[in-house]
Amino acid sequence: MFDNLSTKLDRAFKTLKGQGSITEINVASTVKEIRRALVDADVNYKVAKEVTDKIKDEAMGREVLTAVSPGQLMVKIVYDELTQLMGGEKQDIVIKGEPAVVLLSGLQGSGKTTFAGKLASFIKKQNRTVLLVAADVYRPAAIDQLKVLGEQIGVEVYSEVENKNPVQIAQNAIQFAKQNNKKVVIIDTAGRLAVDEEMMREIEQVKRAINPSETLFVVDSMTGQDAVNTAKSFNERINFDGVVLTKLDGDARGGAALSIRAVVEKPIKFISTGEKMEALDLFYPDRMAQRILG
Ligand code: GDP
């Protein structure tokens, strides 16, 4: 994960590492290299500029120039700024209500259905009863996929094969949950290959009708800048509460992880790192910054 970015950042610090005395010019060129590494990793240009400007100010303010080991101090400054960029503190999802409802949104192929299974399994392990809901009325295969996952993790799946109205399906599912003592309802909605009006209207209507305590936007981290643009489009329409970054086990360049929070102003809450049900982690900005710095 982020090998390329880590290598480039490490190279940027090399100029400062092992040097007793350094100049403002050293700092400026290191900061420039850091900015280039971030942009190469698909970090939004404006975000890369803002964060490296801050790093530069910090470096000058915290006397990197006279530090005993300027390289180490610089790594610490970058670590702090990357942590802040990704939101600072870990943010949990809100599971509240009788039943609590979690709504999932995102494009087709983003890993939404896989994540629905993972989240259900995660919540079940906390000894809460869960109902998975297949509200994708366009792809019967999506219902089957969720049923297979449900069986695998021992969670019931609600679906209505003949019903083409996702709002009704979601409402009926919540009634079903109430009658069957399910405490948490996770609704998997239909995605499209790209942002389109019909999908947006549909998810908007579902959200308004069921008032979830948590709406999550699921996005494939390998799609770089597109991930950020898609997040913006969804957020403008449904004002989601948090982001799930998927496929971080692939050769993601890091851009999505680093810019989504700054651009959309919503926290990343989970990361998905594989196809298996166990491959789910809570998102800790500081740990991610640590991983990026290698
Ligand atoms: P949906 O269309 O958004 O519901 O996406 P799916 O859940 O069907 O996932 C699309 C593909 O990505 C499937 O082949 C999944 O197995 C795969 N996938 C989902 N999450 C991850 C992940 O974190 N890592 C990897 N490597 N593959 C994933």
Task: Report what the structure shows.
- Strands 3-2-4-1-5-6-7-8 form an eight-stranded mixed β-sheet, sandwiched between helices.
- 48% of the residues are buried.
- The protein starts with a helix and ends with a helix.
- By secondary structure, it is α/β, with parallel strands linked by helices.
- It contains eleven helices and eight strands.
- Bound molecules: guanosine-5'-diphosphate.
- Guanosine-5'-diphosphate binds next to helix 5.
- Guanosine-5'-diphosphate binds at residues 106, 108-114, 191, 246-247, 249-250, 272-275, 279.
Provide mean pLDDT, rounded.
92
Main pleated sheet: 8 strands, mixed
Please indicate the percent range of residues in DSSP E strands (runs of 2 or more).
5-15%
SSE order: HHHHEHEHEHEHEHEHEEH
Order of strands across the widest beta sheet?
3-2-4-1-5-6-7-8
- Structural class of the helix and strand makeup? alpha/beta
Distinct ligands: guanosine-5'-diphosphate
Note poorly predicted spans: none
Proportion of residues in helical segments: 40-55%
What attributes does this structure have?
cytoplasm, 7S RNA binding, EC 3.6.5.4, single chain, 51% helix, 294 residues, binds guanosine-5'-diphosphate, eight-stranded mixed β-sheet, 14% strand, 8 strands, elongated, GTP binding, alpha/beta, 11 helices
